[in-house]
């Protein structure tokens, strides 16, 4: 096990312990967990920029790295906005609001970056791999539907707000399928590993966004709920992937 | 390297190193897609590649930006190792320069 993997594991355990230890701490729980999100997305932003700088922001791969950096940086800005709303201003973030809109921006940036790269290498992708990636995506979509449709129908929230709850997991899924295709495109080369971690991060984001959606619609979710651990683990997966990408064959 | 046979061996060895390096660094799928683009955009086949290294570098640069230097250097390193030459004694030049230099070194040996 590499040192970075060990650090990631220790961080994940510490995050989980912190969540459970602070469950009855009220405002401290909100503050600490919001800070953890800012640190997570901040670390990912730095690593994304570093990976982009190492590979260069030119060429098709440069657009991929620019997209990832912009996307991850949007997460960071969004997390900072959450922190300001909840901890500094002590306002409960309404849905949808600026932080959530920023999250949507991040999807566009990452998706466009990945799509233009995959388009160039579409000839090298075997049909079976494309089918496998889309199939996995479809299975997860079905899982999302099973979990989300009931609460969506039962909930009395506005249709526009409901659209947001559906948009996140779907957009996560699209990115997850793209990332899987990147794994397949680079499989056998030295650049596979970063994309495996990034795919894992996106997979966790899908699970996290479905859980958060269900939690918010059913009313059991609150800021600092342990379900957020999944999202923080997604950041850890992303960070590991970006760190691997930074170190890839350019070392 | 005076005879056509030697030139052919030189080119086939270089083509082999290009393929091996691209597959090991990037993947077979990416290598195939690069060959496909060379064929489509410049009508250059895999075997003709050693005579059109500039086009290979152009496509790699369009795709991988300045990482093309690393890929080119890795190809040159593998090629020089197979020829029994020491690449570390050469200045950090691009693949085209390294291939030309190797050709000259073979001619004079």
* Rg estimate of chain A, integer Å: 18 Å
| Proportion in helices of chain A | over 70%
Residue ranges of chain A: pLDDT <50 for 5 or more in a row? Answer: none
What is the CATH architecture term of chain A?
A: Up-down Bundle
Largest sheet of chain A: none
Q: Mean pLDDT of chain A, rounded to whole units?
A: 90
Q: Helix count of chain B?
A: 5
Commentary on this structure:
The complex is a heterodimer of chains A (251) and B (109). With 251 residues, chain A is mostly helical. Chain A has one domain: Rhopdopsin 7-helix transmembrane proteins, CATH 1.20.1070. Chain A has eight helices and no strands. Chain A is globular and about 50 Å long. The mean pLDDT of chain A is 90. Chain B is mainly alpha-helical. Chain B has one domain (4-103). Chain B contains five helices and no strands. Chain B has helices spanning 4-25, 28-42, 53-64, 68-83, 95-108. In chain B, helix 1 crosses helix 4 (68-83).
Condensed summary:
With 251 residues, chain A is mainly α.
Key phrases:
heterodimer, A: 251 residues, mainly alpha, Rhopdopsin 7-helix transmembrane proteins, globular, B: 109 residues, 0% strand
Element layout with pairings:
The complex is a heterodimer of chains A (251) and B (109).
Chain A (H helix, E strand, L loop, with lengths): L2 H19 L5 H29 L3 H30 L9 H23 L6 H28 L4 H28 L5 H27 L9 H20 L4
Chain B lengths: L3 H22 L2 H15 L10 H12 L3 H16 L11 H14 L1
Helix pairs in contact in B: 1-2, 1-4, 2-3, 3-4, 4-5
């Amino acid at each position: 096990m590499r040192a970075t993997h060990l650090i990631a594991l220790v961080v994940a355990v510490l995050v989980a312990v912190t969540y459970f230890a602070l469950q009855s701490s009220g405002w401290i729980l909100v503050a600490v967990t919001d800070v953890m999100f800012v640190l997570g997305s901040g670390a990912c932003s730095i690593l994304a920029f570093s990976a982009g700088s190492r590979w260069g922001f030119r060429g098709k791969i440069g657009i991929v790295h620019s997209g990832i950096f912009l996307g991850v940086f949007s997460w960071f800005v969004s997390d900072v906005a959450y922190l300001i709303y909840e901890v500094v201003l002590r306002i409960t973030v309404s849905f949808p609001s600026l932080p959530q809109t920023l999250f949507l921006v991040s999807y566009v940036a990452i998706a466009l970056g990945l799509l233009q790269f995959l388009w160039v290498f579409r000839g090298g992708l075997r049909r079976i791999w494309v089918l496998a990636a889309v199939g996995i995506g479809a299975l997860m979509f079905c899982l999302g539907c099973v979990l989300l449709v009931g609460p969506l129908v039962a909930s009395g929230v506005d249709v526009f707000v409901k659209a947001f709850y559906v948009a996140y997991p779907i957009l996560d899924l699209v990115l997850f399928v793209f990332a899987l295709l990147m794994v397949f495109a680079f499989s056998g080369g030295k650049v596979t590993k970063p994309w495996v971690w990034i795919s894992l991060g996106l997979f966790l984001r899908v699970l996290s966004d479905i859980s958060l959606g269900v939690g918010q619609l059913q009313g059991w979710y609150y800021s600092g709920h342990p379900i957020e651990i999944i999202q923080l683990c997604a950041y850890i997966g992303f960070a590991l992937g970006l760190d691997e990408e930074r170190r890839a064959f350019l070392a | 390297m005076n005879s056509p046979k030697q030139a052919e061996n030189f080119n086939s060895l270089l083509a082999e190193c290009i393929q091996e390096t691209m597959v090991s660094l990037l993947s077979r799928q990416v290598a195939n897609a690069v060959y496909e683009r060379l064929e489509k955009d410049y009508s250059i086949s895999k075997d003709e590649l050693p005579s059109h290294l500039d086009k290979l570098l152009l496509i790699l640069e369009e795709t991988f930006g300045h990482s093309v230097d690393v890929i080119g250097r890795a190809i040159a390193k593998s090629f020089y190792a197979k020829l029994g030459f020491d690449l570390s004694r050469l200045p950090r030049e691009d693949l085209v320069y390294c291939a030309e230099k190797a050709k000259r070194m073979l001619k004079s040996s």
